[in-house]
Amino acid sequence: MNFGRITRGASAACIQAEKRNGTKRMSPVLGDVTRAMALDLERVVADVQPIDMTYSHSLVHSGEADRPRGGSMLRKTPFILTCGMLLSLAAAPSAQAPQGAGRGGRGAAAGQTVEKIRELKPRLYMITGGGANTLVRVTDEGLIVVDTKNPGDENYKRVMEEIASVSNLPVKYVLNTHHHPDHVGTNQKFIDAGAQVIGLEALKTRMASDPRTKEIPGLPTMTFARDYVLKFGGAEVQAHSFGRGHTGDDTMVYFPDLKVVMVSDQITNNTPIVDFANGGSAVEWTQILDGVLKLDFDMAIPGRGEPKSRAEVQAFRTSFASLISRASDAIKAGATKDQLAMQVKTDDLGWQFNPQFYGQLYDELVRK
């Protein structure tokens, strides 16, 4: 679906219908708001996850917004509903959009402001907000940071303010869990301050080629092919690539002495997102979690949200395996690419995937 074209058409229809109907006779919420939001809608939806806009699209382009059906109030109802749906989409995309496929990452404007730093375990801290979760490991010789949030001077400033509240030592090393902008956004500022950025070779490659990150400075200054061990200031940090999942460059960052592993977006509170365009894989997702579960840990840190227990990681792995098994069984039973979404039960998993996800999952499974 050409979402941009639909949005432009819907926006224009909203404005034209408003002119015909007059803002005085519309819902007061849709009066001035419609003009401003409709004109700006195309820019807003650039960051929205793909969703099925068939209903509002058909209303706009079939003429339902203009067709009389029993009086002026009924005639205006489809228009108000259509524009209301679009405005609701612009205002709260993350709450309503089915997910699962797409490029992932929240973009530069996503996430709340950087929050207060808090201690998870002795000398290990977490900073939420402003992008993905950030971990800070304090050593006697300096600091090790995992993930640097969305781009922006304010994000970096706030992160450094929070870090300074627990240590006056400099950040010496940064590790990235994958290349999405909400994880690598302020890498360059840490480099400029004297830190080394450590990343998977595949992460560096995709950060340099992904349209969302290729203009973001701060490529890793040190790379590794699969596994890396950093020993610094009496602390040990391991970085492992166990396979493809959320992206093709997912990196699990493990603190063995603290029994903590940063799993990033391999564990989510919402529907998992697979960035197929950047090497992500639904079929191999559980392979990464299998690697994680071989580590000795009692706390797992997701890309967003609160720390998880080992049991919660295992439960997430079981749920994802069920998804893949159900899809595979449906294909074996004759489900076509277009039918797969209707054949796979996910409500018990608490996930709602979009049609694009099922199409790409189908392609993965038939190639397997």
Task: Give me a quick take on this structure.
The strands form two sheets. A seven-stranded mixed beta sheet has the order 1-2-3-4-5-6-7. It has a five-stranded mixed beta sheet with strand order 8-9-10-11-12, with helices on one face.
Instruction: Give the full name of the CATH homologous superfamily of the largest domain.
Output: Ribonuclease Z/Hydroxyacylglutathione hydrolase-like
Number of domains: 3
Mean pLDDT: 80
- Look up the CATH topology of the largest domain: Metallo-beta-lactamase, Chain A
- Oligomer category: single chain
Please outline the major beta sheet: 7 strands, mixed
Low-confidence stretches: 1-97, 107-111
Radius of gyration: 23 Å
Defining key terms:
about 15% strand, 7-stranded mixed β-sheet, 3 domains, Metallo-beta-lactamase, Chain A, alpha/beta, 5-stranded mixed β-sheet, about 375 residues
Question: How would you characterize the overall build of this protein?
Answer:
The structure is a single chain. Helices cover about 40% and strands about 15% of the residues. By secondary structure, the protein is an alpha/beta fold. The protein has three domains: about 5-95; about 120-310, Ribonuclease Z/Hydroxyacylglutathione hydrolase-like (Metallo-beta-lactamase, Chain A, 4-Layer Sandwich), CATH 3.60.15; about 325-365, no CATH class. The strands form two sheets. It has a seven-stranded mixed β-sheet. The protein has a five-stranded mixed β-sheet with strand order 8-9-10-11-12, covered by helices on one side. Strand 4, helix 6 and strand 5 form a beta-alpha-beta unit. The longest helix is centred in the C-terminal third of the chain and has 23 residues, at about 310-330. The chain is globular. About 45% of the residues are buried.
